[in-house]
């Protein structure tokens, strides 16, 4: 601000000095140069300040600072508004000065001034010529009467006085050029006697010419001429000149002199004017630009403050505030309204955060409760889209329901579609039903319940709960069959012994007495005895299934139990190739050796029956078929130990495979359906698992999975540590 005021003052001082106005006067060359230098210095300093400010604005623009774009636009606008009038005024001023100086120094003006001086000079020259002639005539008259003047010197003064009056002169005298003595003079010639002619006038007069002189006041014309008849005598005469003409002459000469001087300095004045006007214009321009930049900065600073605060609010910082302006203009109203808005938004956000925290706490509590529930729970919206599943639901359905949120549950689990449709049709009723679902290779029975969430005038959603009741149904069927088996065994066991004893007694007593057909009698009694034995064994199986004894758990070498079981079966069936893949080190598990041996025997017997059934079917079809193969493997994994039996028999059915472990479910014509049921019961008592799958050699693959893995085995059978495996391949005889 100080620099701007100094610049404006310097410009005004330069203008006043250039025009020669008081108190600077007309002699202003050095002061004008000093002011021009000061203007140049101020111009440079002002330019540096403005350039620095513009660079700062450009830097803010490059950094993308808020309000920089508007700042630059305002600066450009103010600069254009300031530059345009300055350029226009500069052009017109230069043209005006050029045309004005052309008119000032035109040929007409120059001719008029020169003619005026010529007229005045002609008038003065005319007086000079007249006085020259008068001086010569008076000197000639004195020369003619010089003899008489020598006898009467006083007559010379009277003669000069007559000549002066006769010729219209006002003064005249004759004096000795060497001594300065006055020889004769007219009346009123005291001024001539006091004002001695200069030496150049004497020199010229001595040559015989007339020396024309002007008085010091330029109001008289005088002439000096030598009087030849009188030795060393000089005639000095004078006549007054009209002062108006003299003043006009002086003024004309001064005007002509100044005109010529100005015309000679014309280009200099143009250059000075251009420099002065250029410096002043640049100073004013920079001052205008600076004021524009400051004004733009004030506007953009206010707007940038609002922009920055708005950006913070946009990014989520509702505590952002802009500086409230005290002005009563639109910016002040806008800043106050903005702060009021952000304050209300912050208050509302705080309330919403509090509400969301409460909702989040309730949601976490609900999720915690749901995650601890073994049943699957799925929340649906009014369109049946999944929006809130628990972890148990994903595990039961073997699907990541969290990733499937927003999709219809009827498409994710098509088996539930009829129940979902029924719930949507009757939202005021609880829909319940059982569905069969195949998850991988395992079939499950789910008990599904769908209840609607009633709202005011609408149904905002549904809650689907389901649980796996497969094991429950299986346990119920097992319990029912166990009760049936116990009753059958009780009712059938009592008459079997008398029947067998009676048949044996009949054979012993009457075999010798029967002569007609003893073979038939023997065949019938043997059949009765054999069938009673089969029924007895069936009754024993019923009794075993109905009253399975509790296992006696102890540490047993599963490897040795496997070898014993395989040895018995390969001895009984030498036509089948047995491959035994066992680890080198003992594998100890906690089990009942008798029950595990029974389970392994059942699995091997099932494999043998499956192979024999395949061979019979192939023989009936006319095919030779492959020889029977059974592969027994003992694998120690990280968390469990698996004993698997694989065969190349006819295999297990794809459909209903999960029902094979239920009592009295069999695929053999003569099977009771209790073998796998007993095996499963044994594995359940051992906290293990019975796994039914397809074998790697073409038939079935049934595995017994015991809990506990590598921590109960010295080595892994499939380890890469180089531990040797014991592999036995037993071929038929």
Automatic annotation (TrEMBL):
Domain Histidine kinase per the UniProt entry, residue ranges: 487-710
Reaction(s) catalysed by this chain's protein: ATP + protein L-histidine = ADP + protein N-phospho-L-histidine
GO CC terms in record: plasma membrane
Swiss-Prot/TrEMBL GO biological process terms: nitrogen fixation
Signal peptide (from-to): none
Alphabetized GO MF terms: ATP binding; phosphorelay sensor kinase activity
Membrane-spanning intervals of the chain: 29-51, 72-97, 273-293
Listed CDD domains: HAMP (cd06225), HisKA (cd00082)
Top-level taxon in the UniProt lineage: Bacteria
Keyword Repeat attached: no
InterPro entries (alphabetical): HAMP_dom, HATPase_C_sf, HATPase_dom, His_kinase_dom, HisK_dim/P_dom, HisK_dim/P_sf, NtrY, NtrY-like_N
Annotated ranges, domain HAMP: 297-350
Keyword terms of this UniProt record: ATP-binding, Cell membrane, Kinase, Membrane, Nitrogen fixation, Nucleotide-binding, Phosphoprotein, Transferase, Transmembrane, Transmembrane helix, Two-component regulatory system
Protein name stated in the entry: Nitrogen regulation protein
């Amino acid at each position: 601000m100080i620099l701007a005021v100094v610049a404006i003052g310097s410009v005004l001082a330069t203008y006043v000095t250039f025009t020669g106005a008081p108190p600077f006067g007309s002699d202003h060359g050095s002061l004008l140069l000093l002011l021009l230098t000061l203007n140049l210095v101020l111009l440079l300093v002002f330019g540096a300040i403005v350039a620095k400010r513009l660079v700062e604005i450009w830097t803010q623009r490059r950094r993308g600072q808020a309000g920089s774009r508007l700042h630059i636009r305002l600066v450009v606008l103010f600069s254009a508004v300031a530059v345009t009038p300055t350029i226009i005024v500069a052009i017109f001023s230069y043209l005006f000065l050029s045309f004005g100086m052309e008119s000032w120094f035109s040929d007409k003006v120059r001719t008029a001034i020169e003619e005026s001086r010529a007229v005045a000079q002609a008038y003065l020259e005319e007086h000079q010529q007249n006085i020259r002639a008068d001086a010569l005539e008076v000197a000639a008259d004195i020369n003619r009467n010089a003899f008489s003047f020598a006898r009467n010197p006083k007559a010379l003064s009277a003669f000069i006085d007559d000549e002066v009056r006769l010729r219209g002169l006002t003064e005249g005298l004759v004096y000795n050029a060497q001594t300065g003595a006055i020889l004769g003079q007219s009346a009123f010639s005291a001024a001539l006697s006091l004002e001695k002619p200069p030496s150049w006038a004497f020199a010229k007069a001595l040559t015989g010419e007339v020396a024309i002189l002007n008085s010091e006041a330029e109001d008289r014309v005088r002439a000096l001429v030598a009087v030849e008849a009188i030795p060393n005598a000089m005639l000095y005469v004078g006549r007054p000149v009209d002062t108006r003409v003299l003043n006009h002459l002086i003024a004309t000469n001064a005007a002509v002199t100044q005109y010529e001087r100005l015309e000679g300095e014309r280009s200099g004045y143009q250059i000075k004017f251009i420099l002065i006007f250029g410096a002043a214009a640049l100073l004013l321009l920079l001052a205008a630009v600076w004021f524009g930049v400051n004004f733009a900065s004030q506007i953009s600073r206010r707007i940038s403050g609002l922009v920055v605060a708005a950006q913070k609010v946009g990014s989520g910082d509702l505590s952002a505030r802009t500086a409230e302006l005290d002005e009563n203009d639109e910016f002040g109203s806008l800043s106050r309204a903005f702060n009021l808005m952000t304050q209300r938004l912050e208050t509302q956000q705080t309330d919403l955060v509090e509400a969301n925290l409460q909702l989040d706490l309730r949601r976490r509590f609900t999720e915690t409760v749901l995650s601890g529930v073994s049943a699957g729970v799925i929340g649906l919206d009014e369109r049946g889209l999944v929006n809130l599943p628990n972890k148990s639901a994903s595990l039961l359905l073997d699907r990541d329901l969290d990733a499937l949120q927003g999709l219809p549950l009827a498409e994710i689990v098509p088996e539930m579609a009829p129940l979902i449709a029924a719930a949507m049709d009757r939202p005021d009723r609880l829909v319940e039903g059982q569905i069969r679902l195949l998850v991988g290779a395992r079939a499950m029975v789910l008990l599904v319940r769908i209840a609607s969430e009633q709202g005011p005038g609408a149904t905002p959603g549904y809650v689907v709960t389901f649980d796996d009741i497969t094991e429950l149904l299986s346990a119920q069927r097992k319990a029912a069959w166990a009760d049936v088996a116990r009753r059958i065994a009780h009712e059938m066991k009592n008459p079997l012994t008398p029947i067998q004893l009676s048949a044996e007694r009949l054979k012993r007593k009457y075999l010798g007495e029967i002569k007609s057909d003893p073979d038939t009698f023997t065949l019938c009694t043997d059949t009765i005895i054999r069938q009673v034995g089969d029924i007895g064994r069936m009754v024993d199986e019923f009794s075993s299934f109905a009253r399975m004894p509790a296992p006696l758990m102890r540490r047993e070498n599963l490897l040795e139990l496997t070898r014993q079981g395989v040895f018995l079966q390969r001895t009984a069936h030498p036509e089948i190739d047995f491959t035994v893949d066992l680890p080198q080190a003992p594998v100890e598990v906690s089990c009942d050796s008798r029950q595990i041996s029974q389970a392994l025997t059942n699995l091997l017997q099932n494999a043998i029956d499956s192979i024999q059934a395949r061979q019979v079917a192939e023989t009936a079809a006319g095919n030779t078929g492959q020889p029977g193969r059974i592969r027994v493997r003992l694998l120690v994994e990280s968390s469990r130990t698996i004993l698997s039996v694989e065969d190349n028999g006819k295999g297990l059915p794809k459909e209903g495979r999960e029902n094979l472990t239920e009592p009295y479910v069999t695929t053999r014509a003569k099977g009771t359906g209790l073998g796998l049921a007993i095996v499963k019961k044994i594995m359940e008592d051992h906290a293990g698992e019975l796994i039914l799958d397809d074998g790697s050699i073409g038939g079935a693959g049934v595995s017994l999975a015991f809990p506990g893995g590598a921590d109960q085995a010295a080595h892994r059978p499939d380890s890469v540590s180089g531990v040797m495996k014991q592999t036995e391949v037993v071929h038929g005889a």
